[in-house]
Each structure stands twice: as structure tokens, then as C-alpha cells.
Amino acid sequence: MEETKELDAFYKDLFDLIRIPSISSDKTRKDDMHRCARLWKDILLNAGADKAEVMPTEGNPVVFAEKRIDGAQRTVLVYGHYDVMPADPVELWQTDPFEPTIKDGRLWARGADDDKGQSFIQLKAFQQLVASGELKHNVKFILEGEEEIGSPSLEAFCRNHRDLLQCDMILVSDTSMLDKDLPSITTGLRGLAYWQIEVTGPCRDLHSGHFGGAVANPINELCKLLAGMTDNGRITIPGFYDDVVELSPREREMIAQIPFDLEKYKANIGINEVHGEPGYSTIERNSCRPSFDICGIWGGYTGEGAKTVLPSKAYAKVSCRLVPDQDYEKISRLFCDYVKSITPDYVKIEVTPLHGGEGYLFPITHPAYPAAEAAFKKAFGKEPLAVRRGGSIPIISTFEKVLGVKTILMGFGLESNAIHSPNENMQLEMFDKGIEAVKEFHRQYDMIG
Amino acid sequence: MEETKELDAFYKDLFDLIRIPSISSDKTRKDDMHRCARLWKDILLNAGADKAEVMPTEGNPVVFAEKRIDGAQRTVLVYGHYDVMPADPVELWQTDPFEPTIKDGRLWARGADDDKGQSFIQLKAFQQLVASGELKHNVKFILEGEEEIGSPSLEAFCRNHRDLLQCDMILVSDTSMLDKDLPSITTGLRGLAYWQIEVTGPCRDLHSGHFGGAVANPINELCKLLAGMTDNGRITIPGFYDDVVELSPREREMIAQIPFDLEKYKANIGINEVHGEPGYSTIERNSCRPSFDICGIWGGYTGEGAKTVLPSKAYAKVSCRLVPDQDYEKISRLFCDYVKSITPDYVKIEVTPLHGGEGYLFPITHPAYPAAEAAFKKAFGKEPLAVRRGGSIPIISTFEKVLGVKTILMGFGLESNAIHSPNENMQLEMFDKGIEAVKEFHRQYDMIG
Predict the structure, then answer these.
(1) Chain A residues inside the 8 Å CB shell of B302
(2) Class in CATH terms, B5-189+359-446
């Protein structure tokens, strides 16, 4: 009872954030986005920021906050996002996704990790350093509300507010470690391109008996189109691999040294066998090689039982993860051109690019890297590994392009956190260690010559 | 006003039937199925049947009615179905699908044609012949409630009630004519096989960044599986064409003589080009050759915007129209075997046969054929053409197998009636002419030697 009360008090800000379903891909959630931004502003002021404000963008607002330290020479900008993924399929959740639940030493909720939970780690570290008077450099916070839909408004915001965002280093907690006992620093991210495809056959749904065999079926055609885009783990869109830089033997050697238990990996996600591009290991495939995933598909009759219909429309959502040298706009053009080039005259196909962004690489020779290394070592008792990861945070490469600043990715997620899935969660222990690590990073950062 | 009242009175029974949403594929509609059966029983008694009853089956009940004529030697059994297709996508209807609406000389509603409207034609013809004392043979009615889901209970019902159903000829109005001014008698139907496919990848939805490229995506795999089942209009499942009888040069010649305007056909359904098996005409493709249609597909994220997910599951509903010599159970086995043979070890694939039935051929040398010919000629002023059609009424071949009786298909639908689609409708003129034709058939049938 006493412990629950203490936990509730400690996590109060995070619980309040989680209770707002700030789903950026859902246009009916505009009010929730604004509510969540205003809440962050209040939280940051309470935590010790000198000023905080909710600033408009073309899309969802950005929260900016700042703490200036007299005489400080350097500034660290903390980036995070207050938007979350949709919670569907909601029926697979064991708790209400928007009601934080502590159970089995974990916090369960949409955003428990990505990225309300991890931003909360940054917040708490900041708050404690301010309270203890240990902070020796300026700290700025920027929290956006469109990360999960590709940060469409943030680049323009950065260009318009270069002075406000001026900093020496960007710090982000929105990635994961290899395992609870395998601290790691993310030194690479994949880029992303995402499209929606609409195939139109006849102008109305037809009786499959009267027309079947004589009129092209848009679902048949969509399947053919999508199936033809990969071949045995390779993407077949012409030019797709042109800018993919091969891993060097040295890099492959380092990747091979990352502890990885294939049987545990398969068991954890319930598969009999992994599958991917020939000639690459699982870690290489999911972090250093491009991928092609159909994220959603729909069309025709999807209700109970059998309906014999030759439908008018079929749709798919398709995404490619890209490696750092691939330009997502070029890839998007190649994709659209390819679809156009093979569209038969008996259906119409429309491709809409939905979002995208570049990959990112952080050199371990950067002067801030040892500070991060020392921080992880202090919190987790072990030297962290430098690893490239398969996810995408497109804004990181934009920061570099627009602000000219590198970002260090101190992420405390774990694979079992099920981000983007039902039953997202985060171990309470990771909050504590994460806060410890971030505090230590700030301390170490002041010691860099 | 006066005219509306008259129409309402004439169509009252049909309107009452339409207002009951007797959707057989929807398991929550059990009460409506029973209500609709009871209503048919009352309507048949009112129309002149000596007796009528609602009889139980393993599934939805069957309505049976009978009118005996003293001294009659022969019996005609009228078959129809009181179940309808689902109305979705409901948003595309311009009127309430379950509220009959007369507009522009047509009746608009789900079931206006298939098969409440056409069964109503049989009912009215029967009623008028009883009233005028012209009926010289016994008439029986059997109306089932599971035609749109493949009549799963009717074969057993027929086997259990062979005596009750004893007859010399079966008469069915559940097909269409070539055009309003092109009366035709359906002398062939395609068979049908229908499956649901479920592909399972990981046991939960995964983040496509963390896993994409290393773990098989069930939607990618489903698309590959389905795309691989056809090649340029041919079905590639091994053995699929083994029992397909080629059209004879004589048959192809007859088909070529059917008036057919390809440009009008394409314009009517809004396509630029037809597409199908090479070497066959559109009419051959949609009536005498097998087809492969994905009737529905779904999986992953289908909401607004972009969600980057590698989903756990993907589903499809697939149907094949078959030609009369193909055994649907054999085809279903070939389908399941094929899927099993190519299932990779990195996903699980489950195939569930949902329903099916054999095709049907009616020889124009049958003694009842001239009676039907004369009936169409009287009502439409033109000799009807004998044509094979692409739809399926699996129970017709079952009647032949179990009761040993041929069925004559006197259908009054038109392509523009949009059966199985939004805005199903039937021209009022076709009701009048249909009733005229069916009455004439009964008269002519008595004159057969």
C-alpha cells in the first residue's frame, strides 16, 4: 500500500501523460494532442525549467523548454515525442492501453516506453540534477507530437527556430538496449519510406460468378504487384540497392560479436524460422540492410462466412526501412516509377507516399561518446556495446542537416517492451537505471575538454 | 398516388420479405431467418397452396408448400431462396437496402432480384394460375435459407424428404437474361469452391523497424502465395484443369453469335480493358471457363495514416468458379495440398474450405425446353437464346443427383440489377414479363406429350 502510493507519486507525471491518447495518426485526436502538449509544458516548468511553451507548427504543436545555467558554455538539447502509436488491435491488450497499470514489476500502457516513458527518464534526470544543483550546462527540451507519423512539421520548425534550438549536442531516449544486462548505445538507425497503394478495378463491386475470369480483380492485381516487389528476401524495385553501402568485414566482425541467442529470439516472437536476405545474419538483416514490409492490406469482403464478390478496390500500406546512404525521396520516386511502369491497362493504381526519412550514423570517435559510455557503465555495471539498430527516427538526420549537431541515442527500451504492439510495457527497474545513466551523462559531459 | 397504392398492394408480399434482413452469412441473424421462413409460409398459403410448412434442417429452416390438382399426372417443383447477401459496403447504397424503394421504374433493395424478387415472380404466377383455374399439374415450392452460403443443409434435407419433394421438373428463377431485349435461358452454371486462408507469422504484431528484414511478414507471404496461384489469367494449382472439358468448335460458334457489345460492357463497369485467360472471349471466360478471385483480404494496420508494423496475421477469402466437369471437392483438395506443399517453414498457413458446389448443364434436347422457349417468346416477343452463365447455384446439381430431376432455369435478372452489390434493383417491367413467362411455362408444360 505504502509502496503503491510512493510509486504513484514518483510516476505521477508519466501517468498523466499516458492517460491522454495522443495518437498522431488519428486526425480525430487533435484536442488530445494539444492537451498533451500543454501538460508537458506544465510538467517541465515544475521540473525546473526557466521557461516552457507550447509552440504551433503546421501540424501538432511542439513543446519547448529551457534551463539556463549562469556562465555555462554548452547546451544539451533533449528531444522526445509526446505522440503515440494507435492501440489497435485493442482486443489483444490485457490492460486498458491508456490507463497506466503497474504489475509484475512493469508499467503497462501505450507509450510506457515509446516515448512517454523514455522522455520521462530524461525529465526525471533533469529534475533531479536541477534539484541537487549539479547541472553545469544549459539544457533545452523539445518534444514533438508527430514522430510516429514521420515528423512532417518538425523540419520547418527547426529551420524557423534555429537560434532557439542552438545547442552543442542532442540527447534522445527513444531506442532500446540489446538486453537488460547488455547495455548498448545506438550508433545507427535505418531510414524509412511509407506508401499507401490503391488499386481500382471495376467501378463497383461485381458478382464474381457473372464477371469472374473476364474482369481483372483488384485484390488479385494488388497481390501480384506486391509479391513482385521482393524475391527471396531481396527487393526487386529497379535501382533500390544502388546507394546501399555494403558492410565492411570489420563491421561484420563487430556485429558477429554481439551476444545473440537465435533460439531465444525465435521463441520470444513465436516463429519456427527466421527469414530474410540471403548472406546476412539476423542482426545484419534487421539493422544494417533494407527491408520491405506490407504493414496493412484490405479490400473486398472481410466479414464472417463467404461472400462471392469481385471487389472494386483493394488497398495496402507498404513500408521500406532504408540504410543510411539511401535517400528516401529517391527511393520513393523509384517505387512510384516502378508501380507506374508495370501497371496493366485493366486496372488503375495510385500510390501515395505517406512519410519517410533518412537513416543515421553516429561515429564512436565523437567526443561525447565516452561520456555516454561512462554513463551506461555506471548505471548498468557494464561497458555498453555500440550497435546499429533497425528502427527509424527520421528527425535525427534532419537535426544534423538543419542544426549541424550530432545526436547521441541513449535508449533504455527492451525488445520485450512490445512497442507499437498490444501490451506495451517497461520494467520499473529500467526507469531507475535510465535516470541514473542520464544523470551521469550530464555529469560526464561537463568533464569533456 | 393512386398508382403508388396499387404498386404497394401488388408488391406487398415482396416488400414484407425484403424488410427482413435475412443475411445467411451473418450468424447474428438467426431470428430474421426464422421470421422470413414463417412469412413465406403465410404468403404461400394465401397464394393458394393447400398446405405450407416451415421445416427444420441442420441450419436455417426450409419452407415447403404444395398445391395438388385432382387427377394431375405431373408435378413441378419451384425452388427459390429467402436468404440474401450482406449489404456491405452499406455506405454505397443510395437507399436503405432493407427498405424497398420504387424509383425510376425500378425496385431498389437487397434481394429485389436475388432471390426474393425472382421468387416473388414464381409466387405471383402460381397465385394467378390458381385463381384463374388454369393450373393442370401439381405445384410444390421449396424455399431455402442458405443459398448464399452454399446450401450446406439442403442436400441432407433432400435425401431425408425424397418423397415429399418427388416431382417431374424443377423450375428456378435465380439467374439472369443477357439483356432486357435479349431473352435467354440459362443452360449451364459454373460450380464454386471457396476458402479462407490464414497466415500467421510472429505470435504478436512487431515493430517493423526492429524486426523488418529478419522475420517473415505474413502479409508479404500471403500476397506471394495468392499471386503464385495464377499466371496471366491461368490458374497454376497443379491438376486444376485436369477435368476441364474444352469447348467444342460448335459451342464456340454458338457463343460467338450471342449479341455482345464489349465497349458497352466495359463502360457499364467502368474499366478500360477486360482481362482473362488468353485465347477465350469475354463470354467464354465468364461462363465456360474457371476463374480465381480473391473476394476479400485483410491484415495489419488499415486505419488512417501510417503505422509501421510487422503484423502477426493476414487473411484472405478466395473463390474459384468451376466448370461442370470439375468436382469441387477434388479442387478443394488440390488447393489445400498445393498450399501445404509450398508453405515455407517461417510462417504457418491454415486453409478452411467455406463452401462449394458443382456446376450444371441442361440439354436443350430435354422435352421441357420447348415449353420454356415458348414462354419467353410470349412474354418478350422474341425467341430466347440458350446460354451458359458464370454464376453458381450448387443445389441444382444436387437436385439432379438426389432427386434425379432436371431443373429449368427461367431467370429474369439483368446485369444492371447489381446483385451481391450495393444498390441491387429490378425493373418493374421485368416482374410483369417474368410473371407472364412463368404462367405461360406452366400452360405449355401441360401440353408436353
Answers:
(1) 296-298, 315, 317
(2) alpha beta
